[in-house]
């Protein structure tokens, strides 16, 4: 069994990247959100993000500690080009068993997390690749909760992890769901 700690993150040096709002590609129909394309030159991923969000990206491929981060005052998205350890685990176990093992041995037993939705293998399709997802609450203090939607994508044996984070007050709002769906549906892998 593999045991993973998924809550702690280290923040180190990143390049803050401005989004060119003049290149907005789409406007959402429900809430009028302007989206623009962003391509991470280091991770090799392209996606559409709200034009007024902030992006921090890795400066080079050797920075293995933190993901591409995309955020606004109410939401954050982390995209990990995941570890060799995850890639090997999925190769050994398959994505579904890997995800259940990860959840059972870290998320559901951690005193600082609470499951909301069990593992789902059909909720998302990204680039035609197999995906898994689950939803949980992370307790940072008695006053600060974060809702986290974890999505794993098996790109032909290369594992990507996409984390959507928000507050309990904003996570399920129509605007939040619309943004998540739009971003997920826009993802393409360039490697």
What does this 3D model show about the protein?
This protein has 191 residues and is α+β, with helices and mostly antiparallel strands. The protein has a single domain (15-189), classed as Protein Transport Mog1p, Chain A (3-Layer(aba) Sandwich), CATH 3.40.1000.10. The chain is built from three helices and twelve strands, in the order E-E-E-E-E-E-E-H-H-E-E-E-E-H-E. The strands form two sheets. It has an eight-stranded antiparallel sheet with strand order 1-5-6-7-11-10-9-8. A four-stranded antiparallel sheet has the order 2-3-4-12. It is globular, with a radius of gyration of 16 Å. The two termini are 30 Å apart. Mean pLDDT is 81; it is low at 1-24.
What is the helical fraction, as a range of percent?
10-25%
Counted by DSSP, the helix tally is 3
Summarize model confidence as the mean pLDDT. 81
SSE succession: EEEEEEEHHEEEEHE
The count of β-strands is 12
State the name of the first-level CATH class: Alpha Beta
- Count of separate structural domains: 1
- Tell the overall outline: globular
Structure summarized in a few sentences:
The chain is of the alpha+beta class and 191 residues long. 19% of the residues lie in helices and 41% in strands. It has three helices and twelve strands; from the N terminus they run βββββββααββββαβ.
């Amino acid at each position: 069994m593999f045991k993973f700690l998924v809550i702690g993150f280290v923040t180190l040096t990143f390049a803050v990247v401005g989004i060119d709002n003049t290149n907005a590609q789409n406007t959402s129909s429900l809430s009028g959100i302007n989206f623009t394309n962003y391509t991470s030159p280091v991770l090799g991923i392209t996606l559409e993000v709200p034009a007024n969000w902030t992006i921090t990206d890795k400066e080079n491929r050797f920075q293995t500690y933190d993901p591409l981060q995309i955020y606004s005052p109410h939401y954050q998205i982390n995209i990990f080009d995941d570890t060799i350890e995850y890639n090997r685990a999925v190769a050994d176990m398959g994505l579904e068993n890997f995800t259940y093992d990860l959840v059972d041995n870290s998320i559901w037993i951690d005193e600082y997390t609470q499951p909301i939705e069990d593992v789902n293998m059909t909720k998302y399709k990204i680039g035609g690749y197999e995906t898994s997802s689950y939803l949980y609450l992370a307790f940072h203090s008695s006053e600060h909760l974060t809702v986290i939607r974890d999505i794993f994508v098996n790109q032909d044996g290369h594992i990507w992890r996409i984390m959507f984070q928000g507050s309990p007050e904003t996570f399920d709002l129509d605007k939040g769901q619309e943004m998540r769906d739009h971003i997920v549906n826009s993802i393409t892998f360039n490697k």
